Amino acid sequence: CFKPNISTRVGSLYERGDRRRDVAFGIFYCGINLGAALAPLVAGSLHRREGYEAGFLSAAFGMAVCLVTYQGLQWVITDSLRRKGTH
Asked: Which pTM value belongs to this model?
């Protein structure tokens, strides 16, 4: 089932009112904020030292790591949705 955004995926892991749902959103938003804070620092410092190519390469590397992590942990999401009966 196609979900248009990742927040919907996080929200569908647990029932409303489940404490784990709040924890999951907390971890999700912490990761988003951490990435938003560190990405400009890393890419900017690489840009100053090595040039634009290094800055953009670091961004591409970060996105690739996130994509591999998401795909590698996809079984956790689908297993949770199967147990819940929504997948």
From this structure: 0.65
